[in-house]
Amino acid sequence: MIPPRLYIAVDTADRAHAERLAAAVHGYAGLKLGSEFFTAHGPEGVRAVAGDAPVFLDLKFHDIPNTVAGAVRAAAPMQPCWLTVHASGGREMMAAAVQAAHRGEPPVGVLAVTVLTSLDDGDLSRLGQATPSLDQVRRLAALAAEAGVDGLVCSPREIEVVRAEVGPDLTLVVPGIRPAGSDAGDQKRAATPADAVAAGADILVVGRPVTRAADPGAAARAIAAEAG
Ligand SMILES: O=c1ccn([C@@H]2O[C@H](COP(=O)(O)O)[C@@H](O)[C@H]2O)c(=O)[nH]1
């Protein structure tokens, strides 16, 4: 199977809704299952809803290295293509995650989340981080690359800077995607599918513009077409 360029964020605790979304996008998008779905339904729910679709397990692990490595080992039987850790957990933690993920059979790809796309420079400043988001993303991306991760999660607005920092080999996964005219919601560093792909995104992550659409299948197909 060709790895999907589009993952739909199935952020719901309603299993029937998740199953309908999975059916609507089957065959041309993968499924990103995160803390809302996983907390409600666990590994069994992930397996049941995903079926044969590629799974991106977005639990954003952030803990000491030993604990994160254990969580990655525990996630491996779900056979996700990707899982996430927070880059701000540090190089040692990311390296422990990578070691555990690559020992799995099949190995799992580790993505490091740089700076959440829901944060802008004002939010970061209120967290005591005066450095602009672009510089924080660049620094975390470099650290994650040193730790050996397979890819990075960044906003569409940082793709070019991140690519220049880490080179061509890492997969750049980009949430904060909003088709023109759609509601940004809590996303503060967002862009359209076409702009994200033009900037060099490898994988787009889209949630509410698809999951809250009257016809999620049609919405996902339109985004896939725009992404090319
Ligand atoms: O920086 C990040 C990291 C992860 N996400 C996740 O992507 C989706 C986006 O959903 P939308 O409904 O399209 O906003 C969601 O599951 C987040 O947990 C992110 O948005 N930003």
Can you characterise this structure?
It catalyses: orotidine 5'-phosphate + H(+) = UMP + CO2. Keywords: Decarboxylase, Lyase, Pyrimidine biosynthesis. It comes from Limimonas halophila. The two termini are 18 Å apart. With 228 residues, the chain is of the alpha/beta class. It has one domain: TIM Barrel (Alpha-Beta Barrel), CATH 3.20.20. The mean pLDDT is 96. It contains 10 helices and 8 strands. The ligand O=c1ccn([C@@H]2O[C@H](COP(=O)(O)O)[C@@H](O)[C@H]2O)c(=O)[nH]1 is lined by residues 9, 11, 34, 58, 113, 116-117, 153, 175-176, 185, 187, 205-208.
Q: Order of helices and strands, N to C?
A: EHEHEHEHEHHEHEHEHH
Percent in strands = 15-25%
Helix content: 40-55%
Secondary-structure content class: alpha/beta
User: Could you name the CATH topology?
Assistant: TIM Barrel
Shape: globular
Catalytic activity: orotidine 5'-phosphate + H(+) = UMP + CO2
Domain Orotidine 5'-phosphate decarboxylase: 5-223
Keywords: Decarboxylase, Lyase, Pyrimidine biosynthesis
Active site: 58 (for ompdecase activity), 60 (proton donor), 60 (for ompdecase activity), 63 (for ompdecase activity)
